[in-house]
Design goal:
single chain; mainly alpha; about 60% helix; about 0% strand; disordered N terminus; Xre-like_HTH; DNA binding; Antitoxin; Xre/MbcA/ParS-like_toxin-bd
């Protein structure tokens, strides 16, 4: 059985992030297609869309949480540019974690609230604030997986 690999999102000329169905399309992509999409760079507007549509936070909050340079990213958004591979990878981590949290809480809004609240297992940092580096992402995933599958710490 082979995984389906949807084509690039319709209506997105620069990369993932501009089209209405892009988030669902990304979720359904095979892992290697996700990797290639990240490497090519998401459309910079994905930052605004993730912040406002998925997380309900100000764009600046998301940029700060992911340690992304505001002026550079806002310029890319204004010029309809693409994010770098590293910038896209940080955004992808948010999408992956939001997806896991949504599965756990069975509600995307509750998952977004969880991502924006301080967590004792993250030294009182918000899950969103530790996704800028791989060990933070790994820790958040571990917390969600343990909660989902009932594994003790």
């Amino acid at each position: 059985m082979t995984a389906t690999t949807p084509a690039a999102p319709a209506g997105s000329s620069n990369g993932l992030g501009a089209g209405k169905g892009d988030f669902d399309t990304f979720r359904r992509m095979a892992p290697m297609l996700q990797r290639r999409t990240i490497a090519e760079g998401f459309d910079a507007v994905i930052i605004e869309r993730v912040a406002r549509e998925l997380l309900g936070v100000p764009v600046q909050s998301l940029l700060s949480a992911l340690s992304l340079p505001s002026s550079t990213i806002l310029r890319k958004i204004a010029k309809h540019g693409r994010l770098s591979q590293g910038e896209s990878d940080r955004v992808a981590r948010v999408l992956y974690v939001l997806d896991l949290a949504t599965d756990l809480f069975e509600d995307r809004e509750r998952a977004a609230v969880w991502m924006s609240r301080a967590n004792a297992e993250l030294e009182r940092l918000k899950p969103l604030e530790v996704l800028d580096v791989q060990p933070g992402y790994d820790r958040v995933r571990d917390i969600l997986n343990r909660a989902q599958f009932g594994v003790a710490a």
